[in-house]
């Protein structure tokens, strides 16, 4: 195709964006941010985007500046006459607020969808949404990628016998069953109840883990409370080993310490959210890049090719 393809990144997403551009066979476009003394800022493209297919890359994890940067860049690209604007959002922040679980609360995921469309996006590309129905919040195409494409290959290379897939909570049962179905393994589930957000009251295990090699599957790890409690419980019930896979490494609070002190042998994550690289904190943590997956799908989107074969789960 003759249409020019341009890549731009939010400031917090530069490392992943550079990798995506590299695997695509492109480079990041030039953009600068003008800042006022009160910390207000405005992005400015330093090259023409007129008539181009523009990919704007950035995850929307807190602080809200990361979201605002992406929206301002999108608005700037629209006003500069870009032909197509795809927001590439490896981690779609605020997605846990996908419904009203009590009166007088927002549905933040829907609000973000509205803002992205209003800013001028013609397409959104993301990975492992916290809830699949968020795709329906958009009135533009959404490419929902699955990190299973990355993780399945890694699991196979472990070549473990007596492998069993586990979900750390009931909400992840569908995801765990999908992995288990593809790998031909059993599934066990953890059932938990919370006192409040990020605080578990109790947890029970459904299924047999004795003498099994367990891999816990989740879409994100935040405080690591649920994941480490599940790992400790599974190990206590007689599992041979316990590993965990989580797409998005939110890793807030004292999550690194919880992981270090838990029964987990390993936590495997993607680079959808940049980590603060402190060597002693990355103990037990392995990072697999999602850049090749995004680059591959972005190339197919640009060439108007089907992307259905690029999904595993």
Q: What number of structural domains do the residues give?
A: 2
Strand content: 25-35%
By CATH, the topology of the largest domain is Rossmann fold
The structural class is alpha/beta
Specify Rg, calculated over alpha carbons.
20 Å
Number of helices: 8
Sheet with the most strands: spatial strand order: 10-9-8-11-12-13-14
Look at the structure and give the CATH class of the largest domain: Alpha Beta
Report the major sheet: 7 strands, mixed
CATH architecture field of the largest domain: 3-Layer(aba) Sandwich
Characterize the overall form: globular
Low-confidence stretches: none
Strand element count: 14
Helix content: 25-40%
Mean pLDDT: 93
Could you tell me how far the N terminus lies from the C terminus, measured between alpha carbons in angstroms? Answer: 30 Å
SSE sequence, one letter per element: EHEEEHEHEEHEHEEEHEHEEH
Keyword list:
313 residues; alpha/beta; Rossmann fold; 2 domains; seven-stranded mixed beta sheet; 8 helices; 28% helix; globular; ribose phosphate diphosphokinase activity
């Amino acid at each position: 195709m003759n249409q020019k393809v341009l890549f731009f990144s939010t400031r917090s997403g530069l490392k992943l964006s550079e990798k995506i551009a590299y695997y695509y066979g492109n480079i990041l476009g030039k953009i600068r941010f003008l800042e006022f003394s009160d910390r207000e800022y405005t992005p400015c493209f330093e090259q023409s985007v007129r008539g181009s297919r523009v990919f704007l890359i950035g995850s929307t994890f807190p602080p809200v500046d990361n979201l605002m940067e992406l929206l301002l860049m999108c608005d700037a690209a629209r006003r500069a006459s870009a032909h197509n604007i795809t927001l590439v959002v490896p981690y779609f922040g605020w997605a846990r607020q996908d419904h009203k679980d009590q009166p007088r609360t927002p549905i933040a995921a829907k609000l973000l969808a509205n803002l992205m469309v209003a800013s001028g996006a013609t397409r959104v590309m993301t990975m492992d949404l916290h809830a699949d129905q968020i795709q329906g919040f958009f009135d533009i195409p959404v490419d929902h990628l699955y990190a299973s494409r990355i993780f399945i290959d890694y699991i196979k290379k472990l070549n473990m016998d007596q492998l069993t897939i586990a979900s750390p909570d009931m909400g992840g049962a569908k995801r765990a069953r999908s992995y288990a179905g593809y790998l031909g393994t059993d599934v066990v589930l953890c059932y938990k109840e919370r006192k409040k957000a990020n605080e578990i009251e109790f947890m029970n295990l459904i299924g047999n883990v004795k003498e099994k090699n367990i891999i816990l599957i989740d879409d994100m790890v935040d405080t690591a409370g649920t994941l480490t409690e599940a790992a400790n419980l599974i190990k206590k019930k007689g599992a041979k080993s316990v590993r965990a896979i989580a797409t998005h490494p939110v890793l807030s609070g004292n999550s690194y310490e919880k992981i270090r002190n838990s029964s987990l042998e390993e936590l495997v994550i993607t680079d959808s959210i940049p980590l603060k690289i402190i060597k002693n904190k990355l103990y037990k943590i392995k990072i697999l890049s999602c850049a090749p997956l995004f680059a591959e799908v972005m190339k197919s989107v640009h060439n108007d090719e089907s992307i259905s074969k690029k999904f595993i789960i």
